[in-house]
Write a structure and sequence with these properties.
Strand content: 15-25%
Largest sheet: 4 strands, antiparallel
Structural class: alpha+beta
Order of helices and strands: HEHHEEEEEEH
Distance between the termini: 62 Å
Amino acid sequence: MAEALSIFFKGVVVLFTIASTLLAGYSFQNKLRLRKVRVSWRAGKLSGYPLFATVFLVFILLIAGIGYVKGDALRYGLLLCYSWIGSMWFISSYLASKHYITDYGIVKNINEPAQTIPWFQILDFVEQEKQEGSEFTFTYADPDQPVTSGLNQLRITVPHRKRSDFLRLVEVKLKARIGNYGTRFVDVKNIPNK
């Protein structure tokens, strides 16, 4: 029974190793597909890095280092698999958490098509100053749905160091349709709640 359980768990580790490699490959392929990226930045929760993937990778590398120092050769294969899983998870999470602003639109998550909004769908936007940067809320309509069925919003936080580049691109892409966006800064605290 113990032998069968051990084989099962090793099989699960192998499956996760393959799945994490495919996910990292998929994320990298999506990154390569992006054309004419004008501005991008890290947007993870841990100083721009993905929180859980980073913590997992650091933990696994620490455990692998301890195993190596102690000379635990029986577990090298298992530790190598976990290190690979952590590395692939980190790569896919890192690429997915970055925000990319292209000539074609805003890509908040390269692995989630619903978080990619073309410029022509954007109807309006609002900027709100935050401690970590400016939060932009873009209101957009789904081209397959009538405008009366409801609008969607996409929120992204632009770091202070990227704000001017980002605003320059927004100006070029939305000026003709939205008009005078120079007065678009709105303090949402002054908007009455309904």
